[in-house]
Amino acid sequence: MIDTIRDMERYAEANNVPIIERDSIEFINKFIQLNGTKKILEIGTAIGYSAILMTLSSPDVEVTTIEKDEKRYREAIKNIKECELDKRIEVVFNDALDVNLSGYKFDMIFIDAAKGQYIKYFEKFANYLNPKGVIITDNLKFHGLVENKDRIESKNVKGLVEKIEKYVDYLKTNDQFVTKFFDVGDGLSVSYRMEDKNEEFQGLN
Fold this sequence. Notes:
single chain; alpha/beta; globular; seven-stranded mixed β-sheet
């Protein structure tokens, strides 16, 4: 298991596959453990790294994860099987915006896919949240570029950063959700419904 995870880290580095930063997954796993999170939806599987680590955080966790890139999907399937977690992790090969998860409900939704689609992901998958469910979003600092836009030379990268900024504004002004932002890893947010604002979510203080 540990060897597979280390192999995944090396594979990601060698093949330029973005995987979650260590501080970020530690924050998320602590949240899972403290709040008894069981059912998780992940938007953006990549090679299965974060799905595996979230599943390992607690024996009660089950993850449904969506990936549209076939090469990454196949790599994720292989890694999940090697970790013997294929009964607890379901990988859906599709574009997340085309997926119909009718009948599914989740305690946590983790958004870590195409940055330009974050608002669409949030709006679609918020409908799949259980009561007292949360939506966690990664990469809100985008490698520090959100805070240092003057360093960006690429027009495409600048466009992505602007979309992330637009998403952050969307979270801040959303009248249905309360969002807390954390300077952890590459920047995380935790959003929960306005009606749950008086609930005790552990690990957010």
